[in-house]
Amino acid sequence: PHEHSSGEMRVWSRVLVVCFLCLCLVVGEVASLDPARPARGGVGVAPRRLKLAPLGSSGDGAQLPKYRVDLDQPPGVRWNDVMKDKRAAAHKTITSLFALLPEEVHTEVDKLVLHVEERLPVWAREEMQGIAAALNVTFGDILLVNFFFEITPFCTSVIARSSSTGHLYHARNLDFGFGMPSFSENLRDLAMDVEFIKGGEPAFMVTTFAGYVGAATGMRSGVFSVTVNEREMTGPLPIPNLLKGVLNLFNAILTTDAYPVTWATREALEDDASTFNSVVKMFSERSLATQIYLIIGGASEGDGVVLTRDHNSLLDAWKMDAASGEWFLVQTNYDHWLPMPIWDNRRKPAEKALSKVGADAILPSSIYSNVLSLDPILNQLTVYSTIMSCAEGKYESFLRKCEGCSPI
Fold it and tell me: What phi, psi does 222 have (nearest 5°)?
């Protein structure tokens, strides 16, 4: 018993070391932001007027590249073609991340991997091992990068039902790198749409980054669409829970009941038996590694819900009710029943924009131009926009880059 307790203490001491060093990275990046640039919505700063971001400049609005990944191939090799094409960009991103981390982080992560590698699902472990081999980096490095992706994105997700077509449209802007704008630029080179193939037929789509095996944005045609938004700021006075986020992710690989949400999302998309209702039920009940929002759309009338999750329980299920006039839902990174923080209120501009378009005119094109392309919904950290129609089987993603928009 004494040896077991000592072993657990050693593992947790390594977790705390890694968490502390990762937090130092985040704080350092925040401190490096241009102090002359006022924070959006801060005290004493005049509110910004909604404006259409300039499209077509510096690559903004270009369609993301599309790749195919064959699920019938062994997990260790199914990403090889992608990583061959994205090798230089992946190395650049990983190098920029780890250049800010002391060498001790690499050492401690590699030690942690020895304790937890067998607890990882086989598909995720073998895919990350294959990616690590393709990039000639350690498995621990790829695992850390994958978990780091889980705690930093800030997003705006929208589900809206058209009264003219009857279809539900599901859209999102993914804003990556709270306090780390340099990563947003690097990640634009890694962003891509991936069509997963099974038995020679398309199975599902995701928008992701090369080297990342989870799914934060995805759709199984005719069944469900899903976006994952971080719930890192909670409480009456929301504050960043960055350290908590790192702790939660490492806790996920040290326990058997907590599970990274984007891995669960990937598995739900891959499951041929998934239905809209079964996916909502699973995400309402499963123990997850992070506090999270899951925005889930479907192909039938009434299919549309935002789930607010704690680690072990469902806190709220916010359902769309078009018949009663609630034809859209907007979820950012804060509980929808609480006031939005004054420094980051993307929700109200999105709601106003959707109301202005109207249920009769809402289409993928109007969502992109009149909602997702408005400052501050579009900001300097926005990496991509995705628009999905599950009933129609339509899925499009676009690179975003707006240097004149709000900083964060």
Answer: 80, 0
Token pair 């579009």 is at which residue?
378
Beta-carbon-side half-sphere exposure of residue 242 (alpha carbons within 13 Å): 21
Phi, psi dihedrals of residue 240, rounded to the nearest 5°: -60, 130
Q: Are 279 and 272 in contact (CB under 8 A)?
A: no
SS3 193: strand
Check residues 257 and 158 and name the one with the higher pLDDT.
158
CB 181 within 8 A of CB 26: no
320 contact partners, CB below 8 Å, separation of at least 6? 159, 161, 168, 302, 304, 305, 326, 327, 328, 329
- The string of pLDDT tens digits covering residues 352-374 is 999 999 999 999 999 999 999 99
Q: With the C-alpha atoms ordered 335, 340, 346, 349, is the resulting torsion angle positive or negative?
A: positive
Main-chain phi, psi angles of 217, to 5 degrees: -140, 125
* 131 in Cβ contact with 80 (< 8 Å): no
Please name which of 172, 179, 288 lies closest in space to residue 241, comparing C-alpha atoms. 179
Crossing angle between the packed helical segments 80-98 and 122-135, to the nearest 10 degrees: 80
- Is residue 294 within 8 Å of residue 333, measured between CB atoms? no
How far is Cα 115 from Cα 237, in angstroms, rounded to an integer? 37
Paired tokens of 364: 């993928």
Q: What angle do CA 233, 364, 305 make, to 5 degrees?
A: 45
Residues annotated as part of the active site: 155
Could you count the other beta carbons within 10 Å of the beta carbon of residue 77? 14
Q: Both tokens of residue 286?
A: 């499963």
Going by their DSSP bridges, the two strands 191-198 and 201-209 should be labelled as antiparallel
pLDDT band at 83, cuts 50/70/90? very high
Q: Which amino acid is at 77?
A: V
Torsion, Cα 26 61 366 383, to 10 degrees, reads -10
Rounded alpha-carbon distances, angstroms, from residue 393 to 221, 299, 338, 389: 5, 9, 34, 6
Angstrom distance (rounded) from CA 39 to CA 300: 41
| Nearest C-alpha neighbor of 124 from the set 76, 84, 83 | 76
- Those residues with Cβ within 8 angstroms of residue 95's Cβ, 6 or more apart along the chain or in another chain: none
Strand partners, 295: 227, 306
224 neighbors 279 (Cβ within 8 angstroms): yes
Q: What is the DSSP letter of 132?
A: H
User: Which residue has better confidence, 134 or 34?
Assistant: 134
